[in-house]
Amino acid sequence: MLKDELNGIPHRRKNILTGEWILVSPHRTQRPWQGEVHKTSGDIRPVYDPACYLCPGNKRANGEINPDYKSTFVFTNDFSALLESTQSKKNDERKLLVAKSEKGICRVVNFSPRHDLTLAEMNEKDIEHVITTWQNEFKNLGSNPNINYVQIFENKGAMMGNSNPHPHCQIWAQESIPMEPKKELKNFKQYYKKNNRSLLADYLKLELKLNERIVYENSSFVIVVPFWAVWPFETMIISKRKIADILHFNEKEKKDFANALKTITTKYDNLFKTSFPYSSGLHQAPADGNKHNEWHFHMHFYPPLLRSASIKKFMVGYEMLAEPQRDITPEQSAKVLMELSSVHYKTNLK
Q1: What is the pLDDT of residues 185-234, one digit of tens each?
Q2: Strands 325-326 and 21-24
């Protein structure tokens, strides 16, 4: 079916990574908006905040004092969702009440000592330092015999549940492979077994040929709005070379990944002239000691904003009870993002 035909009728699209489907209703973009709109508050923060538990030299909740760090700073989360000391226990009552204990380690990675920055406002050299820190943490955590998966993710903005605006992300490493990467692993394996090729390599080749959902491209990475995107301005960063994880980056790929991160986060901020909220995460091969020839490195960005800095897409009603649904098509949102400047909007205000 032609793209123009899809953009005019209700239809479903398949997520080839998870095997799940999404309903797309492009005709609904014509309906008048009568939802709630809030005035946006300014996002001006100080370089240093004495009340921030992530700023250099400040005391954290557990009483420890942060060092006077100059670049990135990593520590074990004071309120970890997973604990390495958890005792192994299981519960299974007639296959109906099933549970098992889960060991893990939760780390916090501060991107910068500056309280007022985000990835979008950091320079690419400093973002490279963040990537180096991710590599070190992935290597150290992944080598732990109790760890089989390492999830690096960032929740940016209060809208996404971030309780502290200081630029940081989290790393949760655990015994089990979590559900989302596990679904992807299944489909990666099936495709690789059948075709002896990477699922995302073939997908990326097709996307580049069609050039309908490409937001940005450099020598090593492509930013694309997935054909099956759920969130209004959802994107993926996909490596052009099939690699399993960030430990396989060469120096050029490391620089290009920093460039891709800077570009997409800047475009997000420029969209509604606000510090754009999102949840993002690296999807890498499991750290279970097995060779994962099927895996292809990629990073997801899930931003909730729909029409302005204050209007958020919620998963409600049909989406909670049936399947995800969107109105604006991935092709439309890709065009919007592609045409945005890669220079941060605040640069012109200084």
Answers
A1: 999 999 999 999 999 999 999 999 999 999 999 999 999 999 999 999 99
A2: parallel
CATH code of domain 3-28+41-349: 3.30.428.10
Helix (H, G, I), strand (E, B) or coil at 228: coil
Instruction: Render the burial of 79-109: b for 16+ CB within 10 Å, e for the rest.
Output: eeebebeeeeeeeeeeeeeeeeeebbbbbbb
Q: Please list the active-site residues.
A: 168
**Rounded to whole angstroms, how far apart are CA atoms 304 and 280?**
11
What is the distance between the alpha carbons of residues 102 and 123, in angstroms, rounded to a whole number? 38
pLDDT tens-place string over residues 44-92? 899 999 999 999 999 998 999 999 999 999 999 999 999 999 999 999 9
Q: Which residue has the tokens 């973009």?
A: 29
Contact 152, 299 (CB under 8 A): no
> Structural domain boundaries of the chain?
3-28+41-349
pLDDT in tens, 142-163: 999 999 999 999 999 988 989 8
Q: What angle do CA 112, 114, 117 make, to 5 degrees?
A: 85
